[in-house]
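Page 37, continued from 36.
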């Protein structure tokens, strides 16, 4: 493994390379910048933190920050520290990826269960309700995949629980279809706002919101249709508690 000076040399090599760095090279550059620590001790002298100087370095060295952040490798095996550096350097947190219907980066990590990346993206300003091509929000994807910790985090960060995809299904229905009783309980415990009657003339889309009562009915029906009877019992239990 390279030592500090070795990392610095490799970082300078990538920075001075002719032509554009590709996604993988950009990730490697970020890794070597972080490992080199060449700005260590300079923050007191300059009044600028080392993280800012590192971010400026990576920003000046490549045009592939957003593409690297949303690369397949970083989506499926994310590097948290390098991802943070890329975002500090200017990588776009709303970047649309090549997977799950051109889903935003946050939506992909919510689907895959990467809670640290979800937290980092939210910290860096990623929209909590950014949707895929089919209108699936990060909350819908996390609920369908059974990632209870991410569902809770997204709800705490203000995700709109009633937002439905283009098929008219909100996160509660997606959780019902997969039989995720814990997630159903979490979603039913959120503030859904006023329960408005459904408008059959309103087209399904990213701005379509489902009321809590309607969503609960849809979730129970969906769960029963695929044999998840424990979800039906859980939903009835929640109704009894709230009476």
């Amino acid at each position: 493994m390279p030592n500090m000076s070795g990392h610095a040399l490799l970082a300078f090599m990538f920075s001075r390379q002719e032509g554009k760095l590709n996604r993988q090279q950009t990730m490697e550059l970020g890794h070597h910048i972080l490992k080199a620590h060449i700005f260590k001790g300079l923050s007191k002298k300059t009044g600028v933190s080392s993280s800012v100087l590192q971010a400026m370095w990576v920003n000046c060295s490549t045009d592939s920050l957003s593409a690297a952040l949303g690369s397949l490798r970083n989506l499926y095996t994310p590097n948290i520290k390098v991802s943070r550096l890329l975002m500090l350097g200017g990588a776009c947190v709303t970047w649309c990826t090549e997977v799950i219907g051109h889903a935003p980066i946050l939506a992909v990590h919510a689907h895959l269960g990467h809670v640290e990346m979800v937290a980092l993206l939210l910290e860096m300003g990623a929209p909590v309700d950014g949707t895929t091509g089919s209108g699936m929000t990060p909350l819908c994807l996390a609920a369908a995949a059974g990632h209870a910790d991410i569902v809770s985090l997204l709800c705490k960060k203000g995700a709109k629980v009633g937002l439905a995809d283009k098929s008219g299904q909100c996160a509660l229905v997606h959780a019902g279809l997969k039989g995720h009783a814990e997630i159903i309980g979490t979603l039913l415990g959120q503030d859904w706002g006023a329960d408005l009657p459904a408008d059959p003339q309103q087209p399904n889309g990213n701005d379509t919101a489902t009321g809590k009562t309607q969503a609960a009915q849809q979730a129970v029906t969906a769960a029963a249709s695929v044999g998840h009877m424990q979800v039906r019992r859980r939903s009835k239990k929640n109704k009894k508690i709230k009476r």
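DSSP finds 15 helices and no strands in the chain. Flag for discussion at group meeting. The mean pLDDT is 87.
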